[in-house]
Amino acid sequence: MKKSKIKSIIISQPKPESEKSPYFELAKRLGLKMDFRPFISVTPISAKEFKSQKINIADFTAIILNSRNSVDHFFRMCTELKLEMPPETKYFCVNESIANYLAKYIQVRKRKVFVGKSTEVELLNVIKNHPDEKFLFACSDWRKPDIEKFMKKNKFKYKEGFFYRIVSSDLSDLSDVNYDIICFFSPADIRSLFENFPKFKQNNTLIAAWGATTVKAITDAKLTINIMAPSAESPSMIMALEKYIEANNKGLK
């Protein structure tokens, strides 16, 4: 198949708020048309729906938080239930960014906050040092299985609580629009793709994937992955895209 120049990308995430985003810099540097379109959206679960899960937040001594959404919706639910978390509650955050975001709701320096390096798997190395806690994972209905598998295997006192839902966005306006690269960041993005376009065929479209669970969802859907991140050579999606596009477009008009 004859190689063609990559000219357009769609990123399945919201458009960056900062004009200095490396995505904009990459698009300008390589002369790309780059669009941002969230393939999924977040909807809150009501207090009534949450109560149907028969979870009493006050029963738990440790809260696992893996995203800003989990932080926002956990504390939203606490407010709706008129519940104030005790000072001794421990918070386990998947990375430093999430831990810092906690300051929106609590005085972090006065609380017990434990932080993973980057991924949920790395956070488990921190959690395993606290076997006596009673853990509540504040998550959505669309979450990775790593934490649940680990907690059950090690017989931790643990429960998942759904505080919000991940729903597919309406992408019907993209039905006649083609991009050279589609960039996916979660398995839910793949679910959204096929809910919107059940007969989707990859053809000459290149696919970029972020993270192992996204890679698995794409391969399970029998699609071909052309660009993957993170990796030792490309720790960010920006670097992976840049490396691939520069190599592909070299010498092409």
Show the helix and strand layout:
Blueprint: E1 8-11, H1 22-30, E2 33-36, E3 40-44, H2 47-51, E4 62-65, H3 68-80, E5 90-93, H4 96-101, E6 112-115, H5 120-127, E7 134-140, H6 146-153, E8 157-168, E9 181-184, H7 187-196, E10 206-210, H8 212-220, E11 227-229, H9 237-249
Parallel strand pairs: 1-2, 1-9, 4-5, 4-7, 5-6, 7-8, 9-10, 10-11
Antiparallel strand pairs: 3-8
Helix pairs in contact: 1-9, 7-8
- What fold name goes in the CATH topology slot of the largest domain? Rossmann fold
Major sheet: size, sense and barrel closure? 6 strands, mixed
Order of helices and strands: EHEEHEHEHEHEHEEHEHEH
Shape: elongated
Alpha carbon gap, first and last residue: 17 Å
Helix proportion of residues, in percent? 25-40%
The number of strands is 11
| Content-based structural category | alpha/beta
Mean pLDDT: 91
User: In order across it, which strands form the biggest sheet?
Assistant: 3-8-7-4-5-6
CATH architectural category of the largest domain: 3-Layer(aba) Sandwich
Can you tell me the number of structural domains? 2
Strand content: 15-25%
CATH domain class name of the largest domain:
Alpha Beta
Low-confidence residue ranges = none
Individual helix count: 9
User: Mind telling me the C-alpha Rg?
Assistant: 20 Å
